[in-house]
Design brief:
single chain, Rossmann fold, GMP Synthetase, Chain A, domain 3, 2 domains, 5-stranded parallel sheet, 10 helices, binds xanthosine-5'-monophosphate, nucleotide-binding, GMP synthase [glutamine-hydrolyzing], purine biosynthesis
Length: 327
C-alpha cells in the first residue's frame, strides 16, 4: 500500500538524515533509474548534489546528448561529464568472459567517479574545500536480488552497480531505490516532474553495449552494434511497440561468422541477435511476438545498412531459462 508521494517523502527524509549538509555525487547513465535517483536526492538536499556523467564509450546513439542537454534542461542540476572512452577500451582489451567484463566495467566506473571527485575537491579548495563522500546509485530491488544481495539467492550476474564494486570503495553509498521495482521508480519520476522521454525509457544496463558484444569489445564492434541498435529502436518505435516491449537488447555475435551472399559476392559476416522481451519487473520475461512485417523491415535495414552484418536472428527464449541480456 504505497503512493509515489509517500515514498518520496519517506526517501527524502532518509536521504537528509544520511547526508546532512555534506556534498553528494551522483552518476547519471542516461537511464531511468539514475535519473530518478538523482532527482530524489536533489529534492532532498538541493545543490549539495553534483551529477557526474561518465561517457564510457559503451553508450547507444544519442545518449550523451540526452543527458547533457535534456536532463539538465529539466532539472537544472549541476553536471560534470567525464570522457572515459579510451580508459574503458584499454581496460577491456582482450577480455571476453562476461563476469570479467562486468567487473572491469564496474571498477572503471568507480575510478572515473573518483577522478571526478578529485577534480571537484581541487576546484572547491578555493571555497570550502569540502570533500564529496557520498555516492548515489540507482540500484533497484531486482538488481540487489540478482547480484546475490537477497536472502539465499545465488549470484546470477554481477550488476555493475552492486557486485562490481571494489573493496576499497572510497564512497558511502546512497541508494534510495533499493527497495523498489521499476514501475514504482517510474511513478516517482513522474511525481517529481521528470518528462516522459526520461521516465518512460526502456531499461538499458549500466555496462551498456559492452555486455551486448559476445566476444572482445573493440571500437569497430561498438560502432557496428550502435548502428544496428539505432535501427532497431527507430523501427520498433515507429511500429508502435514501445509499450508492449519491455526492452529489446540488440546483440552482436562478434566471434561467430557465417557465409552470406550480397550483391554478387560472397560475404563472411557477423550475426545480429534481436532479443525483444515483455516483462513486468525483469525478474521473469517472455519473448515478444513482434509482427513479421516489422522483423522483416529491421532485418532488411540492418543487413543493407550495417557493414559486416549479413544475418539477423531472433531470440525466442523466455526468462527463465534465458536471462534478458546475453551476458
Ligand atoms: P538479466 O539479463 O539479468 O537482466 O535478465 C535483468 C534486467 O537488468 C538489466 N541489467 C542491468 N542493469 N546494471 C544495470 O543497471 C547491470 O549490470 C545490468 N545487467 C542487466 C537488464 O537490461 C534487464 O533489464
Amino acid at each position: 500500500d504505497w503512493t509515489a508521494g509517500s515514498i518520496i517523502q519517506e526517501q527524502v527524509e532518509r536521504i537528509r538524515a544520511q547526508i546532512g549538509d555534506k556534498k553528494v555525487i551522483c552518476g547519471l547513465s542516461g537511464g531511468v533509474d539514475s535519473a530518478v535517483a538523482a532527482a530524489l536526492v536533489q529534492e532532498a538536499v538541493g545543490d549539495q548534489l553534483i551529477c557526474v556523467f561518465v561517457d564510457h564509450g559503451l553508450l547507444r546513439q544519442g545518449e550523451r546528448t540526452q543527458v547533457e542537454r535534456d536532463f539538465v534542461a529539466v532539472t537544472g542540476v549541476r553536471l560534470v561529464t567525464v570522457d572515459a572512452r579510451e580508459q574503458f577500451l584499454t581496460a577491456l582489451a582482450g577480455v571476453s568472459e562476461p563476469e570479467q567484463k562486468r567487473k572491469i566495467i564496474g571498477r572503471e566506473f568507480i575510478r572515473s567517479f573518483e577522478q571526478a571527485q578529485l577534480e571537484l575537491v581541487r576546484e572547491a579548495q578555493d571555497g570550502d574545500g569540502e570533500e564529496v563522500r557520498f555516492l548515489v546509485q540507482g540500484t533497484l530491488y531486482p538488481d540487489v536480488v540478482e547480484s546475490g544481495g537477497g536472502s539465499g539467492t545465488a549470484n546470477i550476474k554481477s550488476h555493475h552497480n552492486v557486485g562490481g564494486l571494489p573493496d576499497d570503495l572510497r564512497f558511502e553509498l546512497v541508494e534510495p531505490l533499493r527497495t523498489l521495482f521499476k514501475d514504482e521508480v517510474r511513478a516517482i519520476g513522474r511525481e517529481l516532474g521528470l518528462p516522459e522521454e526520461i521516465v518512460g525509457r526502456q531499461p538499458f544496463p549500466g555496462p551498456g553495449l559492452g555486455i551486448r558484444i559476445i566476444g572482445e569489445v573493440t571500437q569497430e564492434r561498438l560502432d557496428l552494434l550502435r548502428e544496428a541498435d539505432a535501427i532497431v529502436r527507430v523501427e520498433l518505435t515507429e511500429a508502435g511497440l514501445d509499450q508492449e516491449i519491455w526492452q529489446c537488447p540488440v546483440v552482436l555475435l562478434a566471434d561467430v561468422r557465417s557465409v552470406g551472399v550480397q550483391g554478387d559476392g560472397r560475404t563472411y559476416g557477423h550475426p545480429i541477435v534481436l532479443r525483444p522481451v515483455s516483462s513486468e519487473d525483469a525478474m521473469t520475461a517472455d519473448w515478444t511476438r513482434v509482427p513479421y512485417g516489422v522483423l522483416a523491415r529491421i532485418s532488411n535495414r540492418i543487413t543493407n545498412e550495417v557493414e559486416g552484418v549479413n544475418r539477423v536472428v531472433l531470440d525466442v527464449t523466455s526468462k527463465p531459462p534465458g536471462t534478458i541480456e546475453w551476458e
